[in-house]
Design a protein that fits this description.
single chain, about 575 residues, alpha+beta, 3 domains, 6-stranded antiparallel beta sheet, 4-stranded mixed beta sheet, 18 strands, globular
Length: about 575
């Protein structure tokens, strides 16, 4: 807790001599008087506060009140933050409503919107359902006095403050919000080195040595400056937050914000960026007697099944760099054509353009052990480069009902057959989804998910269960697309937590495409890979029965889809405007 108040009788700036003069008594006599028995009282914590700990449960932008016995249940967020906004925070409030005390209904909260935005996002990430925040989980007093004995709310607040350290000590998820953001990619990289311990090395005798090498002294200095800037945050200077951090102990998590421009670098540090730009750059930096060999080397490294005719390109006097870009796109590399960035691409080289413009927000499943391999397979199929854009094939889905899994039982259901390619908890989660879908009378999707589990169990351990098609195709997809029938609830996609406060997202579309690699023969290897695409998209023009849909990429979506007897349709991803507008 931090009420950021100040008092006029704070004499911390006075010397002992000044204190003696001011009070007309020796320091010792003052100490004796202050420490007399009548000034003493036992330090007791009012434990019913903990046994009936108030917590909030978020539903969109509304937070509802409940209580738990924190001695028995520690699965709650204990939030540490400053009541006063830092220089880096927006002080605006009012976006969130909190249920009042004694069933007083919902009221707009005076807590900063950014505080709720950040902590609710973390709760979704950590899968924690309950939040303890002092401004709403401690009754605020009736008056400003600290010694009031007339109002029950004032007494209750003092009791709660006395026991507040237990709130943080007992919590399994104490969390602190820092205000100073990471502002540059270099800062993010440096923080990663600090947190992973890669700025220090072990000496031969096992003791900690200083930073790696004298030649890296500059990096060491930058690291110290970064840590200094972080610890100058307001949170580090408040006494209440010191207590909260101290009592929270080792489980305390410090959340550091970052500017939106660092979203892509942050994701890259987690291994979800495409490797193609790095491969292109590395090949460029290597010596070649024949520069056009770059095309063959790139095709081999990236396992491109489509190559370009070098001799024909040379005869046509084509650009080698643009040939590299064209070959990347023909093999399904995905350009980010959302056009959110207004930065000109005119001064960029092809390799720099690829680094900036290739889609970066891939999202491999959390338990996937080879995320870069997953990213490598995230490519379009049957690509053709057209004046309008990049033509490809796939399916379009219109998102509809939202399944709020936070309302599911925490205990996973038993499953008939625990065997399968999927891990046991994944199978149990899918079985839980099947139960929900049946209750909601979504029989088709429930039956197909159930069948997927049965097939997965049946084929577990089978040597023939090897192709991507077998693993990803279920036998009953129904398409929500163009010219076909409208068959709802035949796919499930994982919705993102990016839009804080949005309980039911606005209508959206998802483009999916999956294709197993072309199998070679004893004589020929097609140099192909399995491909899978799952992108939330915007429709740039209305869906017409005779027209080709034009799509703009929004983000990646993981999902499970079921289709049968529904062919892929053609779609076009228009060129990014910054590329389209480059003209002589």
């Amino acid at each position: 807790m931090d009420n950021d108040g100040s008092t006029n009788d704070d004499d911390k700036g006075q010397s002992l001599h000044e204190l003696s003069l001011h009070h007309g008594a020796s320091i010792v006599s003052q100490l004796v008087d202050i420490g007399s028995r009548h000034n003493q009282q036992p330090h007791e914590k009012f434990l019913p506060i903990i046994r009936r700990l108030q917590c909030l449960s978020p539903r969109g932008t509304k937070l509802f009140r409940g209580q738990i016995n924190a001695f028995d249940k520690q699965e709650y967020i204990a939030l540490s933050y400053t009541w006063k906004s830092s220089e880096h925070e927006d002080p605006k409030s009012g976006k969130y409503q909190v249920e009042g005390w004694d069933s007083q209904g919902l009221k707009s909260s005076a807590v900063r919107d950014c505080v709720f935005d950040r902590i609710l996002s973390y709760m979704r990430y950590a899968q924690v359902q309950l939040l303890w925040i002092d401004a709403h989980c401690i009754r605020q007093d009736e008056c400003d006095g600290d010694t009031c004995a007339h109002h029950s709310r004032c007494t209750e607040k003092r009791d709660a403050l006395q026991a507040m350290d237990l709130v943080y000590q007992l919590s399994s998820h104490p969390v602190a919000l820092l205000g100073r953001p990471m502002q540059e990619t270099s800062e993010l990289h440096l923080l990663k080195l600090i947190m992973t311990g890669k700025l220090v090395a072990k000496s031969d005798n096992g003791s900690e040595s200083p930073f790696w090498k004298p030649t890296e002294l500059g990096e060491a200095i930058r690291a110290l400056r970064l840590l200094h800037d972080i610890t100058q945050d307001l949170w580090w200077r408040r006494a209440w937050t010191f207590q909260e951090n101290y009592r929270g102990g080792r489980p305390m998590r410090l959340l550091i914000p970052y500017t939106s421009s660092l979203e892509s670098p942050k994701r890259c540090l987690k291994g979800i960026c495409p490797m193609t730009p790095t491969v292109v750059t590395d090949i460029e930096e290597r010596g070649l007697s024949n520069p056009w060999d770059r095309l063959a080397i790139l095709a081999n490294c990236c396992q491109y099944s489509t190559r370009l005719d070098v001799e024909a390109l040379i005869q046509q006097n084509r650009s080698l760099s643009l040939s590299v870009l064209a070959m990347c796109l023909l093999n399904g590399e995905i350009l980010d054509n959302s056009d959110d960035s207004q930065t000109s691409t005119v001064p960029l080289t092809v390799s720099h353009f690829l680094r900036r413009q290739l889609f970066k927000a891939f999202s491999a499943p959390e338990d996937y052990t080879r995320p870069l391999t997953f990213n490598k397979s995230c490519r379009l199929i049957d690509v053709e480069l057209m004046t309008d854009g990049i033509s490809t094939m796939g399916h379009i889905w219109k998102l509809s009902r939202v399944i709020d899994t936070s309302k599911f039982e925490r205990e996973l259901p038993p499953i008939r057959n625990p065997r399968g390619e999927s891990i046991l908890d994944e199978r149990k989660c899918l079985q839980q989804l099947v139960h929900y879908l049946k209750k909601q009378r979504h029989r088709f999707l429930a039956d197909q998910t159930d069948k997927y589990l049965a097939d997965d169990a049946h084929k577990a351990g089978s040597k023939t269960y090897a192709t991507f098609t077998e693993m990803s195709e279920a036998e009953a997809w129904q398409h929500l697309g163009f010219g076909g029938g409208y068959s709802p609830y035949s796919a499930v996609f994982v919705w993102s937590d990016e839009d804080e406060g949005v309980q039911w997202p606005p209508p959206a579309f998802v483009f999916t495409s999956a294709w197993s690699r072309v199998q070679g023969s004893e004589a020929h290897e097609p140099n192909d890979i399995d491909r899978h695409v799952s992108l939330e998209v915007d429709l740039e023009q209305p869906r017409l029965s005779t027209g080709v849909p034009h799509l703009r990429v929004r983000t990646w979506r993981l999902g499970m889809c079921f289709f049968k007897d529904c062919p892929c349709i053609e779609v076009v991803f228009p060129w990014p405007r910054a590329l389209r507008d480059i003209k002589p």
